[in-house]
Amino acid sequence: MQDHLQRATWIWYPDDYEIWLHQKVSVLRQFRGYICPPSWRLDAAYTSVKFRKTFDLTEPELLTLSVQGEFVLLMDGSMTPIPYKKTPITSVHIPAGRHELTVNVYNDREIPAMYASGATCGTDGTWEVTALNGKWVPVASWTFHHIEQPPAAFPFSYETRQPAAVTNIDGGVIVDFGRETFGTVSFLEASGQGGIHLYYGESLEEAMAGEGAETFDTLAVNSAEPLDRTTSVTRAFRYIQIKTDPGISYAQIEHRYEYLPMERRGEFRCSDPRLNEIWEMSAHTLHINMREFLYDGMKRDRWVWSGDANLGFLINNYSFFEQDVAKRTMIALRGKEPVEIHINTIMDYTLYWFLSVHDYYLYTGDLAFVRSCYPKLVSLMEFCLNRRNEAGMLEGYPEDWVFIDWAPMERRGELAAEQLLFCRSLEAAALFAGEVGDSEGEARYGKLTGRLRETIYRLFWDDEQGGLIHGRYEGELNRQLLKYPNIFATRFHYLDEGQREAVREKVLKNDAVQKINTPFMRFYELDALCLLGEHDYVFQEVREYWGGMLDLGATTFWEEYDPAIPAERQYDMYGDKFRKSLCHAWGAAPIYLIGKYMLGVKPTEPGYSRYQVEPKLCGLEWIEGKVPTPDGEIAVYMDAWRIRVTANDSGIGVLKFKCAGRPIVNAGELTAVGGDEYELLLTSPSYEYEIELGRGDVHA
Amino acid sequence: MQDHLQRATWIWYPDDYEIWLHQKVSVLRQFRGYICPPSWRLDAAYTSVKFRKTFDLTEPELLTLSVQGEFVLLMDGSMTPIPYKKTPITSVHIPAGRHELTVNVYNDREIPAMYASGATCGTDGTWEVTALNGKWVPVASWTFHHIEQPPAAFPFSYETRQPAAVTNIDGGVIVDFGRETFGTVSFLEASGQGGIHLYYGESLEEAMAGEGAETFDTLAVNSAEPLDRTTSVTRAFRYIQIKTDPGISYAQIEHRYEYLPMERRGEFRCSDPRLNEIWEMSAHTLHINMREFLYDGMKRDRWVWSGDANLGFLINNYSFFEQDVAKRTMIALRGKEPVEIHINTIMDYTLYWFLSVHDYYLYTGDLAFVRSCYPKLVSLMEFCLNRRNEAGMLEGYPEDWVFIDWAPMERRGELAAEQLLFCRSLEAAALFAGEVGDSEGEARYGKLTGRLRETIYRLFWDDEQGGLIHGRYEGELNRQLLKYPNIFATRFHYLDEGQREAVREKVLKNDAVQKINTPFMRFYELDALCLLGEHDYVFQEVREYWGGMLDLGATTFWEEYDPAIPAERQYDMYGDKFRKSLCHAWGAAPIYLIGKYMLGVKPTEPGYSRYQVEPKLCGLEWIEGKVPTPDGEIAVYMDAWRIRVTANDSGIGVLKFKCAGRPIVNAGELTAVGGDEYELLLTSPSYEYEIELGRGDVHA
Description:
Two copies of one chain form a homodimer.
Chain A (H helix, E strand, L loop, with lengths): L10 E2 L3 H11 L3 E2 L2 E2 L12 E10 L3 E8 L1 E6 L15 E4 L2 E10 L6 E5 L10 E3 L6 E2 L18 E5 L3 E5 L2 E30 L2 H5 L7 E15 L4 E10 L7 E8 L7 E4 L2 H17 L16 H11 L6 H12 L12 H18 L2 H19 L28 E2 H21 L2 H22 E2 L4 E7 L2 E6 L1 H9 L5 H12 L10 H13 L3 H17 L37 H10 L2 E5 L4 E4 L8 E8 L2 E8 L2 E5 L5 E7 L5 E2 L3 E6 L2 E6 L5 E5 L8
Parallel strand pairs in A: 24-28
Antiparallel strand pairs in A: 1-9, 2-3, 4-8, 4-10, 5-7, 5-9, 6-8, 10-11, 12-17, 13-14, 14-15, 14-16, 14-17, 18-25, 19-21, 20-21, 21-22, 23-24, 25-26, 26-27, 27-32, 28-31, 29-32, 30-31
Helix pairs in contact in A: 1-5, 3-14, 4-5, 4-6, 4-14, 5-6, 6-7, 6-8, 7-8, 8-9, 8-10, 10-11, 10-12, 13-14
């Protein structure tokens, strides 16, 4: 079809697309033939909404309409519907003059949505909508710009893939698609009467386990004539064991890979092929998990978790920079009013949500999104504030899951780690309040931040042990030294120089302190270690830990990996065989660590209007890559002799590097900041700065 | 089927059945082929819930299951589903010992609900449910006691009705069903290709208007063989104009009357046949409108309005005493959290909701219901309290509809009528708080009631005019004398004897004060006039106003009736021909007035544990009737010589009457209270008390 003069688009009630979609996808998880709904409240879109728009037309105009739902058109406040033409296309005449058109839409399956286009006017961001709750708000829309493409179907891309290998086994075949993939399976020219049984496996062992696999389907065939048949629900797998009932035959198996089309705007190559492979596989892992939302893992849970998403967003910022997924995920996680329990029922996961919005704003500079979610951000914060104890701190309520990490620890009372997350959340809320012009909120949240930070340090900082202790329960301090609060304090830049040193030596690098075993918290730990300058240690760890999975034949990175576990139990988790997710978003952590600490690129002001580049070779001969920003990529090359940085298309950067002698630069303002440290100001958009470091004696 | 040892029943999340059903029925209204969704937020049931029950079994037990939705069974906190048998009947083995069974159910069309029964245990009120929001609450259930009868279909009764008359007209027929009815229409042995067009009319004129009627349907026929065809949506009508496309034929028209089975527990007969007819037709009018909920009118709006329901409940209390409809209606009106706008968007309608719960409790004594809705009652009250102005009074916000009545009046600022409704609501909240043991709430609401009542009288009582003035706007008193605040103050017993006299003479019986023209507010006015002793006036009015509709051929009572309007415009309303509802619940008001003020029966303590009977002949030769109570009916007979009262099956009544001489009673403690007034204590359950009044010289 041709676009109309003005670009019309499908419109709906804000946040309802994400909330509706989230409910729909959250119940697709299956465990051995049974549904697995999430363990938190699933919110629903409004079913009855009213759109409005005032037209001021010099000529009467014919509006072409398509509505997702039943609808009625009203004009200028009258209670009597105005008739519309139903065939061949739905349309209504808008008379000349100033008229307010309202459209009531009801839909209890999909979101109520509409599309209208005329010669001069159509549905766009200037329309308003109400859920009949006393408030009119601007409509939301996305990329549904065609009248024939309503928002009921998510705009995925598809590729048909052939098996990499098909192996006969007793009573069936094993199909191997060569690497982890996601989608449906088709049997071409299937005939006979009965079922085709599919047992999916992220590992060969899982597929071979038949009904011991996490997911399996039966596809009914009932035709003497050969017909193509396709499974109805998407699954994550690399292998499928296929068994057919007697008399069933088919010509060929195909897989329809379903994915979100995304560009890999981030890039990385270096002199170590293993690290390159880790980066590539990380990108594939993340891509599989970025779809309608940023999921934890596509086999399991295929749910949206706020803590997992917090990591995933950071990784995305150094690879796809696909921010629509991020926004959908944050909206879905936040859900609807009233807030009755923490996000995902986990206290820390509510707090990670604030951190995610903060990271989102820092990396994108998208104030419009902050503005749109600010009221819900405030009510979520009020929920938290209402749950403070007399000391102004958060303790778990009986219904709260106080998580922090899968590790033995005291979870009762005031945990230092939770207060740090809370403090950072308050700090973010104060920032947002300021940005959206809520000066009262800014002052209040700011004051609460300061007071909580003071409480945390007064109670929990232990000079002797050189770190923040675990917490307090029923008035008694728990002086256990665990890494969590110290990781957070480091990440949030809440430590002074002396405290940083103490935390590095006495906590994070202290073998006597309980080790962190989950990749989830390991992400934050490695992040903190980089912030403390432990790059070499971190990237050695990346090579070993992620490399270990490669050695075991992984084609995507796992939810968890412990080299000490025997191979036959590597896929077990939560007490069940094959329950471990072998394609888990947080497994893609190396992308973030490499982008932020090896290529060394990070925004210092929202949206990369100011940014920093501080590349480090970390023992490699050369590194090269790109980091996406809202406005172009920042390209970095470094070897012992030179650094090349291409600035993004706007923004002002600072390149920080060391050089024993005086470096030679092709442009820009160079400042020696002391010792062998230099800063080069990157002010020319898209310009390639080149820095000659001399004779390779760079300390990096 | 046979019931199991214990009575199992379908269970679901509390209030969700009502909220789901309300959404479903609220969008059935049609206007000339277009949908008419209500102008308020429609709430939805939770789609994902989890039921739980701990069993303590000496023997293993087989539980037979039926679930409305997809589901998974889990036991004892494990994340691994327990398998269940799917055929021939769904069942699961519960092992002996103490085990907690949880059942996650997901359903996005109907409410998630389940039924389970075994030898010793099944789904009943001891199960709990959560919407995954951190709270476990006891499940709700109703009369769905059979495994094959899930709550998806409302348990209506049906009767097949034949037309009273079929008249040929140009190109079709007019079918008359003799009186207003409701349901679907069947065409037996229909054949041919095309449509049967039905134009419904509550009046003949409406049916004759074709597409000018409020509702019409087309039934598609596409069969050479004669097949029975039935319309898909229920409609309200007495007449139908039927036109068929060429070649369509059918053998017979039938109507399937759909109704809620209810017993007419209230009765009334008297020496005036016209009043008897008015009572009968009122009962029919109310019955048509009492279904899933108490509707305003079944043609229009077929919506649930809080103010309308407040009247309907009172009428129901003197006729069907069907309290399940009342409960469903109150739950549906209240909806879900958060409260964002007034009920039905109308400020007064929020306040009527509190009054309805109060009336419900007074007439039924059902504390369990009060307890179950108390948290939502509190949050609705908090919503109101948060909207008070500095003077502690309610003024309309821009999004509020300040209704009071369809009449010209100032609606801005502090209206005395609204404050009176608010004050009464606070008083009810204080009562409920006390009853459910919330002593803090009781004290708080009690104090607020007193303070507001004091404010109302200080500002708005005008001694000179002898009544409450209209209100205050921007600090300026509006001294207009309107009936509304004075009606409310009378009804709420907020007037002292002198004020009552003043209000009667100077306001309610003052022809210079703006007349009330709507049956809605007229109901409250007549109620107030009865409370002021104006029985004769009120029942003369009942004869004339309701009798006037009878004279115009009504078979049910109307939304509005003005004798002054010419016949050809009697069915117009809101600027549209035939928009008036001719079967409107509030049209049944005479039942209430007769029961409460002629038979004279009313509860004085919750649930008729204490009650009063004060019959009045109001100029008739004899009156006779029954008034339903939670525990049996109170029967009353009176003529000039005697009164007979049969006490209900529990409770203690006081019969109040006048007698010139000393009355003779067959039982009970008689007290002369002064003048010719007597009180007889009715303490014997179900006993018929007889009072001889002497020679017919009773003043009644």
